[in-house]
Specification:
Elements (H helix, E strand, L loop, with lengths): L5 E9 L6 H4 L19 H4 L22 E4 L11 H9 L3 E4 L4 H9 L3 E4 L2 H11 L6 E5 L4 E3 L5 E3 L4 H8 L4 H6 L2 H14 L4
Parallel strand pairs: 1-2, 2-3, 3-4
Antiparallel strand pairs: 1-5, 5-6, 6-7
Length: about 200
């Protein structure tokens, strides 16, 4: 998993509330357990007409937000079913950070496991970031995980809280497999000892 340290990128404003995982990645696309390839179908029903053409008014189809790496979202983002394909699609599109007043618990935890930083902030601070994001591609935000700060395009600094363990995992690019491999020496030693004491096993 890629390390998350400091991100400076375009922020896309999406002030819709209760965006569920089926809106993030519709169930019709859940045909693979590979983490890649879902970005093109992110927010599919909001991004495309039935004939496959783009809906021009959708935020991520606008030229200034096509390369957005931060998403400023409405309340209760990621509600609905627990499908891990939702953060897969977000990450595959290129979004590395989501800011909202609240997230569904399972989606929130799945984000950390897939290299995405979800940040919870009070409504007034989300509103400030939303307004900054609405300025377009020239208004780049900086998200510093180490210092736990977001800096707007005008230099306003907002601090955020993050679980210490989840922060460690993101800073070091550790998913569940990576965490296990940190203990490889101890695992190998245990297996060697077990094989010596139980050669028949």
């Amino acid at each position: 998993m890629e390390k998350f340290t400091t991100l400076q990128g375009i922020a896309a404003p999406m002030p819709l509330v209760n965006i569920d995982t089926d809106m993030i990645i519709p169930k019709v696309f859940l045909k693979s357990i590979q983490r890649s390839g879902f970005g093109k179908n992110l927010f599919d029903e909001m991004r495309y007409n039935r004939d496959g053409t783009e809906i021009k008014d959708f935020v991520l189809n606008k030229p200034q937000y096509r390369n957005a790496e931060v998403l400023i979202a409405g309340d209760n983002f990621g509600c609905g079913s627990s499908r891990e394909h939702a953060p897969w699609a977000i990450a595959d599109f290129g979004i590395k950070c989501i800011v909202s007043t609240s997230f569904a618990d399972i989606f929130f935890n799945n984000c950390f496991k897939n290299g995405i930083l979800p940040i919870k902030l009070p409504q007034d601070q989300v509103d400030l970031l939303m307004a900054d994001a609405e300025k377009g591609a020239n208004a780049r935000m900086t998200v510093d995980l180490e210092s736990q700060e977001i800096k707007t395009s005008e230099g306003i600094v907002i601090t955020f809280e993050v679980d210490t363990f989840k922060k460690h995992c993101l800073l070091n690019g550790l998913d569940d497999i990576g965490l296990t491999m940190e203990k490889k020496g101890a695992i190998d030693a245990f297996e060697a000892k077990a094989n010596a004491s139980r050669p028949w096993a």
